[in-house]
């Protein structure tokens, strides 16, 4: 299922470019748990489970076991595949995984839906709930973005009362100027930092014409997590290390900006999401600090 449609249903150059051919790593990596595996420059490394959604659809427990075998120590959920929070938490614990974050629709944190959403997040040990999509009807003007910010603040009050931080995850449209401003900046200015933080998707920020280094510097301390996904010079999404983004520079800047969680993701890793997750892990594990 496409995540944008799924989340829509819930709601009814500072970046360096490597030379051609440089930075590409093998798509294979040893299957091992992190304590016996390579020492990462950024650790613990996480995986957004949307990357392996096809595998999860057929075998939730087995897929989580294989994610751990690659070396990932954190995962980020986007749906729960019919499992309870207790079932998923037991599977995570069995394989040495934690789930500090999960994606939800904004309406799942409004009205009567909020209690169940927060209860699931608490069962999974989430410290963050991140809204990863907003319909066009909610964001046609800057006034819409400010109204949306007020809704996020209200939802953030609910999650904060439960010990969970609310976040917003960008795509590319938030970076495209609207009425002379960048909507993501307007949204960040209009939300209370104590209630709403930001999850920067590094691919989509570059794809939308933004500068993630400049953004991270401007909003230092406001971005606890990023999505690590690579982009070729002509805009294709590829495994991390197979594109043109200068990861050593960018990830170093992310660390200096206070980022604590790094979730690898590939939106369409056909035909094998686990192979994509493995390739990205291998590249990042070998990246010099």
Fold topology:
Blueprint (H helix, E strand, L loop, with lengths): L2 H8 L34 E4 L4 H6 L1 H11 L3 E4 L7 H10 L3 E7 L9 H10 L4 E4 L10 H20 L3 E5 L13 H8 L5 E6 H6 L4 H7 L6 E4 L1 E2 L5 E2 L8 H10 L4 E4 L8 H14 L3
Parallel strand pairs: 1-2, 1-10, 2-3, 3-4, 4-5, 5-6, 6-7, 7-10
Antiparallel strand pairs: 8-9
Query: CATH H level of the domain at 75-259: which superfamily?
Result: Divalent-metal-dependent TIM barrel enzymes
Percent helix, as a range, is 25-40%
pLDDT < 50 runs, ≥5 residues:
3-37
Calculate the terminal CA-CA distance, rounded to whole Å.
36 Å
Query: Strand order across the biggest sheet?
Result: 1-2-3-4-5-6-7-10
> How many β strands by DSSP?
10
Tell me what the CATH architecture of the domain at 75-259 is.
Alpha-Beta Barrel
Largest sheet: number of strands, sense, barrel closure? 8 strands, parallel, barrel
Give the overall shape, derived from the CA principal axes. Answer: globular
Question: What's the total helix number?
Answer: 11
What is the string of helix and strand elements?
HEHHEHEHEHEHEHHEEEHEH
CATH class of the domain at 75-259: Alpha Beta
If you average the pLDDT, what whole number results?
89
CATH fold-level topology of the domain at 75-259: TIM Barrel
Structural class: alpha/beta
Strand content: 5-15%
If you compute it from the alpha carbons, what radius of gyration comes out, rounded to the nearest whole angstrom?
Answer: 18 Å
């Amino acid at each position: 299922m496409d995540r944008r449609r799924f989340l829509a249903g819930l709601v009814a150059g500072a970046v360096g470019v490597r030379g051609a051919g440089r930075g590409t790593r093998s798509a294979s990596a040893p299957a091992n748990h992190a304590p016996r595996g390579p020492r990462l420059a950024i650790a613990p490394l996480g995986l957004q489970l949307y990357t392996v959604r096809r595998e999860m659809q057929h075998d939730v427990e087995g897929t989580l076991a294989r994610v751990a075998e690659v070396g990932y120590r954190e995962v980020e959920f986007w749906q729960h595949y019919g499992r309870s929070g207790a079932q998923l938490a037991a599977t995570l614990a069995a394989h040495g995984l934690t789930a500090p974050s999960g994606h939800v629709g904004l309406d799942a944190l409004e009205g009567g839906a909020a209690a169940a959403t927060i209860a699931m997040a608490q069962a999974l040990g989430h410290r963050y709930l991140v809204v990863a999509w907003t319909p066009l009807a909610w964001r046609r003007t800057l006034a819409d973005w400010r109204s949306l910010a007020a809704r996020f603040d209200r939802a953030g009050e609910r999650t904060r009362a439960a010990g969970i931080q609310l976040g917003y995850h960008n795509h590319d449209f938030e970076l495209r100027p609207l009425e002379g401003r960048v909507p993501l900046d307007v949204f960040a200015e209009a939300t209370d930092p104590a209630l709403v933080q930001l999850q920067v998707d590094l691919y989509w920020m570059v794809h939308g014409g933004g500068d993630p280094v400049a953004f991270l510097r401007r909003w230092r301390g406001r971005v606890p997590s990023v999505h690590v996904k690579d982009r070729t010079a002509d805009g294709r999404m590829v495994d991390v290390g197979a594109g043109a983004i200068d990861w050593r520079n960018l990830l170093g800047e992310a660390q200096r900006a206070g980022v604590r969680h790094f979730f690898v993701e590939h939106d369409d890793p056909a035909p094998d999401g686990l192979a994509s997750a493995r390739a990205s892990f291998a590249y990042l594990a070998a990246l010099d600090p």
